[in-house]
Write a structure and sequence with these properties.
about 350 residues, alpha+beta, 5 helices, 14 strands, about 30% strand, elongated, MDM2_MDM4_MUL1
Length: about 350
Amino acid sequence: MEEFPVRTVEGLCLGTSLAISGLFFYIYRKKRKSVDKLNEAPHMNLDGKLADLLNVTPGKCLQYVVIEGAVQPVGEPLRSQYQEGSVGVVQKLMLREHKLVWNSLAHTWMDSECVLHQRVNTVPFSLVGSDQANVRVLCPLEASELKMEILHEKFHQATYGFTDIVGQYLSGEKPKGQLETEEMLKVGATLTGVGELILDTDRVLKLRPPTDGSEYFLSTADFETLRLEQEDQAVVWRVLASVFALAGAAVLLWVGCRYYRSLRVCWEQERLKREFETLGAGGSGATQQGSREQETPLENDCVICLTQLRSCVLLDCGHVCCCYSCYQALPQPICPICRQAINRVVPLYQA
């Protein structure tokens, strides 16, 4: 039995698709776990009773809860560099370069972006609810879904002369310009936090990343919107994992079908070989002896080996010119007489 025929390209496609599918499935399972935790997380009202509830809770800790409140700084807030009067608690300043890069495969210019400079400033802040109850938010930069408001966005167009244009075509890069942005989590914004809630020794409520490895969320959207976004992301990862798994299965099915076709060809060759061997053992020995006795040794001999009798009919041309062993040894399935392609071969029964 011949080995399973997997070509290099097929093996590469199969391995890549299965690896990517496994990676996407791992991300999906992780995202699905986060969604399940969100669905099970209790919603806590941010009021004066929350501290009393945590005080009687074992360990003074709730591992995964949902808290909503208004953002208020603990001390002086951050001030916007570009928008006067805007204050916040988290500020992100970013400078990105946009350029066109020549793609030799697609023979076109492709957009590219890289970060030249980024700075993030934070100050301690809390979520404030009714009765002026507040929860201190810890490690905000470790949270997911922290989308801040864009306060400033300006694109600085690149300028260049003739020598710059020549250099760009030689280097394959065309600078388009630089984008300057400022994002800020503003004071007073409503924030939804999902994480571990603890009561500190000084009776200060604090929200921090869960110690059990669950995902930590801070979002300016409400909880239902946050939950639906996470659900949609889980569905996307599941679809991507399924698509790549189906691609790998399709490659494997293609290889299996080709292997089955090659096996059918081998089985047909084995059947013909047994048929020719049976024919040679039964009648071609006597025929060969009779022909030798009639002193016509080359009349019915194979035109290739000149040793064995002609024992097969080549179709569709119909020539009877060789034995089955020489037919199998042909480098290409072409008739040695007329050079026509051989579609099939049948044994010659000599009377």
